[in-house]
Write a structure and sequence with these properties.
Elements lengths: L1 H18 L10 H9 L1 H4 L4 H4 L4 H10 L2 H15 L6 H16 L13 H16 L5 H8 L5 E6 L2 E6 L41 E4 L5 E4 L5 E3 L1 E4 L1
Antiparallel strand pairs: 1-2, 3-6, 4-5
Helix pairs in contact: 7-8
Length: 233
């Protein structure tokens, strides 16, 4: 009974802390939070290659404990990974436009709630609309590029491009439960920000519904937006 009381107290404090974007608690999962705090020295020197060895929930906690410069470098290295693949010139230029914007706006990594930055929101909106309308990309492709630091696999068949996220089978594994529409959540889904269908990097049939959960950080574009919804079928 005592353990249950302490767990409830921890989760209550966690929700209040994360929703305010404070950094003293890195995960609403007590085990992940404890592990992260025990490895802060290690995390201070981690790179993207270290980060992607972990499951998604642990990656979010590690990312939250990184410095703004580390976070920026994580995504710059992801860009380098993306640009190794074959893209037509228009696609490559579009990726370079995004990289240039992030390079000039490194300050986005000092605040994990970019939903309040109109300059940022307008740019990524226009960028994604161009990607969809002109390049023919969908939410699943865009989400796989910029809603996870993980490596991708790019394939093409009959002129149709497919992007898959390469998941790690190493490191720590605390699994995130995918909710149905009828289920109510407590903490918001770790992939879901309602600015776009970020749930699509899991399954193109999934969608993001805002509300019904407690907001947590590190979702959306480059993990700079809050998790404010639930992925569902």
């Amino acid at each position: 009974m005592k353990n249950k009381f302490f767990l409830i107290a921890f989760v209550t404090i966690c929700f209040a802390t994360l929703s305010c974007q404070k950094d003293s608690i890195y995960s609403c999962d007590p085990e992940i939070d404890k592990w992260t705090k025990e490895h802060l020295n290690e995390i201070s020197s981690m790179t993207r290659s270290d980060l992607i060895e972990y499951d998604d929930q642990t990656m979010k906690a590690i990312f939250g404990a990184m410095s703004p410069e580390q976070k920026y470098n994580v995504w710059m290295i992801k860009f380098s990974h993306l640009l190794q693949f074959h893209w037509n010139q228009e696609e490559k230029n579009h990726l370079l436009t995004m990289r240039s914007f992030i390079t000039k706006n490194k300050n986005i990594f000092t605040n994990s709630k970019q939903d309040e930055d109109d300059h940022f929101l307008l740019f990524v909106y226009k960028w994604s609309e161009y990607a969809k309308d002109i390049l023919g990309w969908d939410d699943q492709i865009i989400s796989s590029l910029f809603n996870t630091p993980r490596d991708i696999i790019k394939t093409e068949k009959d002129g149709v491009m497919r992007i898959s996220v390469l998941n790690s089978d190493k490191g720590l594994h605390w699994q995130t439960k995918v909710k149905t529409r009828s289920e109510t959540g407590t903490d918001c889904d770790t992939n879901c920000n309602d600015t776009m269908n970020w749930c699509a990097n899991r399954d193109t049939a999934m969608d993001c519904t805002s509300g019904g959960c407690t907001e947590t950080p590190y979702c959306g574009w480059f993990w700079t937006q809050p998790c404010n919804g639930i992925c569902h079928y």
